Amino acid sequence: MSEVRVHNFSISLDGFGTGEGQALDAPFGHAGERLHEWFVGTRFFHAMDDLPGGTLGADNAFAEEHNPGIGAEIMGAGKFGPPGWQDDPDWKGWWGPNPPYHTPVFVLTHRPRPSIEMEGGTTFHFLDTTPAEALAQARTAADGADVRIGGGPTVVRNYLAEGLIDYAHIAVVPILLGRGVRLWDNLESLNHTYNIESVSTPTGITHLTFTKNQ
Amino acid sequence: MSEVRVHNFSISLDGFGTGEGQALDAPFGHAGERLHEWFVGTRFFHAMDDLPGGTLGADNAFAEEHNPGIGAEIMGAGKFGPPGWQDDPDWKGWWGPNPPYHTPVFVLTHRPRPSIEMEGGTTFHFLDTTPAEALAQARTAADGADVRIGGGPTVVRNYLAEGLIDYAHIAVVPILLGRGVRLWDNLESLNHTYNIESVSTPTGITHLTFTKNQ
Ligand SMILES: NC(=O)c1ccc[n+]([C@@H]2O[C@H](COP(=O)([O-])OP(=O)(O)OC[C@H]3O[C@@H](n4cnc5c(N)ncnc54)[C@H](OP(=O)(O)O)[C@@H]3O)[C@@H](O)[C@H]2O)c1
Ligand SMILES: NC(=O)c1ccc[n+]([C@@H]2O[C@H](COP(=O)([O-])OP(=O)(O)OC[C@H]3O[C@@H](n4cnc5c(N)ncnc54)[C@H](OP(=O)(O)O)[C@@H]3O)[C@@H](O)[C@H]2O)c1
Questions:
Q1: Which residues form the Bacterial bifunctional deaminase-reductase C-terminal domain (chains A, B) (predicted)?
Q2: Is A9 touching ligand 1 by the criterion CB < 6 Å?
Q3: Does A200 sit within 8 Å of B200, measured CB to CB?
Q4: How, if at all, do strands B116-117 and B70-76 pair?
Q5: Do B179 and A198 touch (CB under 8 A)?
Q6: What is the pLDDT of residue B50?
């Protein structure tokens, strides 16, 4: 069966996947860009924006796992837009006319709207359903390929808690945020079901990988 | 001036420095021995108990920083004994007649008792005072040497929050505890005052070091 994967999900040392005070001009709240500096510097990220340059090396090697084999993404309402986007009928996500997904994307929200077809193969679908049912739909749309759980922290945590994730790559950034949305909350159960690897790189990032035991 | 240091302080990936349900037969609650397996396996730990063997290598290298230059320790009531030890006039700590400190040890407690002199140079003193005042007393007792903040998580967190720690070595163990006492709580401020290094070792431990900016 196809796998369910998390990639390049960044948290602070104290476990926050986003800061406090998310808004249109502050997609990560008071965290600013600090959770993703390591990622936007990579060659993988540059290429996603059709930019030259960016670093090769250990951080980029992890970053590059993001897309290969992925046929659909699931994300939360908090990743799709700032608080209140549901009141704006024209909101189409943060990513402009040609979002970097190029697959169907399923947005979990309690206020669904009709699907939006974007350029480059991305279609946003809006679902108000359980994580398992959303996954079933994404699997069908992915047509045998893998499904990425794209964030934010609430949605990744929910999928982890339900045991639905096969592989998760979490990048721990050496900052302390103190407040925001925690990834780690009541996830004691993971300890028994995953093999966990840790790799720290010279830039200070610790890459954790969780691989589900067979 | 002498430095204030934390060494070999172990936390889970989700940031807990001890589990839930601390008791006489469960010093770390439901965490059991899992937070310290890496540490008790080292040659440093074996030598502390006058045992032969134990591993050399990266984890042991970090472990060995524990004692050199230290002239006193400060610990919390929760490290000194299980809940309720204050009601037992004969309680002298977990460590037998010759505790592995060999220096004055200051126990922070709201129910202080007279000092206890043990074999091997360890004397337990009991203080009901502020972190800063306890540190002043420990510095005097250390006579120019450094002071170790020994734990548990509550006491380490309090000293970090007050900006009183010069160097902290935190060992992140690849387990998820889900519940217990968190080290990371409202420590956003650290981000601006410390240089943070991360080193993961082949055993899966990530050693974080916090070094105060000059
Ligand atoms: N650290 C990273 O690598 C990373 C990655 C991606 C995003 N982010 C950041 O994470 C933040 C968003 O994370 P978040 O945890 O606040 O929110 P989120 O996980 O993106 O979304 C949670 C929201 O999605 C909706 N939802 C979730 N499950 C649902 C279900 N089963 N049925 C219906 N609706 C459901 C609910 O919103 P409603 O009730 O409002 O519909 C819920 O509040 C943003 O700041 C984003 O920039 C970080
Ligand atoms: N992870 C590690 O490497 C590590 C290291 C050492 C210990 N531990 C574990 O950590 C656990 C204990 O940690 P904890 O966070 O529960 O407790 P703790 O930090 O050892 O002690 C906190 C307690 O100390 C007393 N206290 C603290 N500051 C005080 C002050 N300024 N004045 C007076 N009293 C003060 C209070 O107790 P009262 O009000 O009761 O007096 C307070 O509840 C144990 O399970 C221990 O085995 C773990």
A1: 8-195
A2: yes
A3: yes
A4: unpaired
A5: no
A6: 87
In a domain, B133, yes or no: yes
- Confidence band of B64 (pLDDT split at 50, 70, 90): very high
DSSP letters spanning B11-63: EETT-EEE-S--BTTBTTGGGTTTTTHHHHTBHHHHHHTT----B-SHHHHHH
Domain count, chain A: 1
Residue A112 scores a pLDDT above 90: yes
Cα within 13 Å of Cα(B12), Cβ side: 27
Kindly report the nearest CA distance between residue B85 and chain A, in angstroms: 29
Which ligand does the CA of A16 lie closest to?
1
pLDDT tens profile A187-198: 998 888 999 999
pLDDT band at residue B214 under the 50/70/90 scheme: confident
Read off the pLDDT of each residue in A127-156 and give the average, rounded to a whole number.
98
CA torsion A31→A36→A41→A45, rounded to 10°? Answer: -140
Distance from the alpha carbon of residue A206 to the mean position of ligand 2, in angstroms = 29
Residue type at B74?
A: I
CB B71 within 8 A of CB B3: no
Instruction: Give the CB-side neighbour count of residue B84, counting CA atoms within 13 A.
Output: 5
Mean pLDDT value across chain B? 96
Instruction: Show the domain range for A53.
Output: 4-86+98-212
B77: Cα separation from own chain's centroid: 12
Residue A73 within a domain: yes
CATH number at residue B194: 3.40.430.10
What angle do the packed helices A153-161 and A131-142 form, to 10 degrees?
Answer: 100
Compute the residue count for chain B: 214
Return the residue in A14, A169, A209 with the most chain B beta carbons within 10 A, the one to mutate for interface testing: A14
Alpha-carbon distances, residue A163 vs A75, A189, A214 (angstroms): 17, 9, 13
Find out whether B13 and B180 touch, Cβ atoms under 8 Å.
Answer: no
Distance CA B109, CA B113 (A): 9
Q: Which residues of B touch A189 (CB under 8 A)?
A: 176, 178
| A92 located within any domain | no
So what's the pLDDT on residue B74? 98
B157, B162, B164, B167: CA torsion to nearest 10: 40
Q: In what order do the strands lie in the sheet with B123-127?
A: B116-117, B123-127, B104-108, B70-76, B146-151, B4-12, B167-173, B206-212, B194-200
Cβ <8 Å between A198 and B15: no
What ipTM describes this predicted complex?
A: 0.85
Is B149 domain-assigned?
yes
